[in-house]
Amino acid sequence: MSFGEKLKSCRKNMRLNQKEFGQKIGVAESTVSLYESNKRFPDADTLKKIANLFDVSLDYLLGNVKDNHAAEGKMPKDLNKFLQQSEIIFDGDTYNLTEDERDMVMKSLEVAFYAAKQANKRKKGDSPTK
């Protein structure tokens, strides 16, 4: 699958038209069309924005791996480190979190993880490992 085909597929999976997608990554609709028809290729910064928006690796976008999950492997993700990034994309929208907002998200995640652990204990009848 070419870069343009992969880009179009990812865009459609997010239910974005070319104009909406272009606005999210900072390019014109016509530029998106050129990307998808393989007549133009994005620069490095735009590639990073695309990968972040679609939550895929650059290797996946560039065709170095067929399955995005294969590129990720089993490496655990550090949510605290993730939240420290200057821009975070969630559900297709970009956010710049303040320190207070980061703390609120972390506290919410701690509550959610605790609830999930408790539910897991009840299901399995034993304590989960850390």
TrEMBL record:
Residues annotated as domain HTH cro/C1-type? 7-61
Q: SUPFAM superfamilies from the entry? A: lambda repressor-like DNA-binding domains
Q: Report if keyword Lipoprotein is assigned.
A: no
Keywords from the named record: DNA-binding
Spell out the coiled coil positions from the record. Answer: none
Q: By its UniProt entry, which Pfam families does this protein fall under?
A: HTH_3 (PF01381)
Q: Which PANTHER family match?
A: HTH-TYPE TRANSCRIPTIONAL REGULATOR XRE, TRACRIPTIONAL REGULATORY PROTEIN-RELATED-RELATED
Q: What is this protein called?
A: Helix-turn-helix domain-containing protein
The organism's taxonomy opens as: Bacteria, Bacillati, Bacillota, Negativicutes, Veillonellales
